[in-house]
């Protein structure tokens, strides 16, 4: 329980720090769909790891209906992740999102490999920012502190500290 409270506090702190429209942790808790989706995912992920797949999937479904944010219970999500205007976000089952990542609305962390035995979804490293509507597909890595521009299509790795934009993506800063 203590670990859950610490995780939620990190989400709330991140929301207040990264969203100028959010003025308090209380406001973030009740009115920020990203916080609600990540809090539900925390619980669903633990159920999934314990083999309680049906319960985990039901909680994920309920969260998706409430928030518009779809996170598979098998996905690994770090601490202090901030989801702003989360409607339409999809995070696949083998995705890994590290600490302090910012995700804007309409982002897809999707798979292109259909084999259930392979890692099919992206890894997003610490401190990265994923712009609104960006689509990141496959077992690729978005580097630490990198930025992916809005509506970008990413099918290859983005190095650390880079800015990637376009469809298909190109690196404009490194």
Automatic annotation (TrEMBL):
Catalytic activity, reaction form: L-serine + acetyl-CoA = O-acetyl-L-serine + CoA
InterPro entries, sorted: Hexapep, Hexapep_transf_CS, LbH_SAT, Ser_AcTrfase_N_sf, Ser_O-AcTrfase, Serine_acetyltransferase, Trimer_LpxA-like_sf
Documented EC number(s): 2.3.1.30
A GO BP annotation: cysteine biosynthetic process from serine
Signal sequence annotation: none
UniProtKB keywords: Acyltransferase, Amino-acid biosynthesis, Cysteine biosynthesis, Repeat, Transferase
Pfam families given in the database record: Hexapep (PF00132)
Any GO molecular function: serine O-acetyltransferase activity
Pathway(s) the chain acts in: Amino-acid biosynthesis; L-cysteine biosynthesis; L-cysteine from L-serine: step 1/2
GO CC, alphabetical: cytoplasm
Family membership noted in the UniProt record: Belongs to the transferase hexapeptide repeat family.
NCBIfam families reported in the protein's UniProt record: EPS_EpsC
PANTHER family: SERINE ACETYLTRANSFERASE
Protein name: Serine acetyltransferase
Organism: Floricoccus tropicus
Lineage: Bacteria, Bacillati, Bacillota, Bacilli, Lactobacillales
């Amino acid at each position: 329980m203590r670990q859950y409270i610490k995780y939620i506090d990190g989400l709330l702190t991140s929301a207040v720090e990264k969203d100028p429209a959010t003025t308090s942790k209380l406001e973030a808790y009740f009115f920020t769909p990203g916080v609600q989706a990540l809090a539900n995912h925390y619980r669903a992920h633990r159920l999934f790891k314990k083999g309680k797949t049906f319960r985990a999937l039901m909680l994920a479904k309920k969260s998706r209906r409430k928030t518009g944010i779809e996170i598979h219970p098998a996905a690994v999500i770090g601490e202090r992740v901030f989801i702003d205007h989360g409607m339409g976000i999809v995070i696949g089952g083998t995705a890994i999102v590290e600490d302090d990542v910012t995700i804007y609305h309409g982002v897809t962390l999707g798979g292109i490999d259909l084999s259930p035995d392979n890692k099919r979804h992206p890894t997003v490293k610490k401190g990265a920012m994923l712009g609104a509507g960006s689509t990141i597909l496959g077992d690729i890595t978005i580097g630490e502190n990198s930025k992916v521009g809005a509506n970008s299509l990413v099918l290859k790795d983005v190095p650390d500290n880079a800015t990637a934009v376009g469809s298909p993506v190109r690196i404009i800063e490194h």
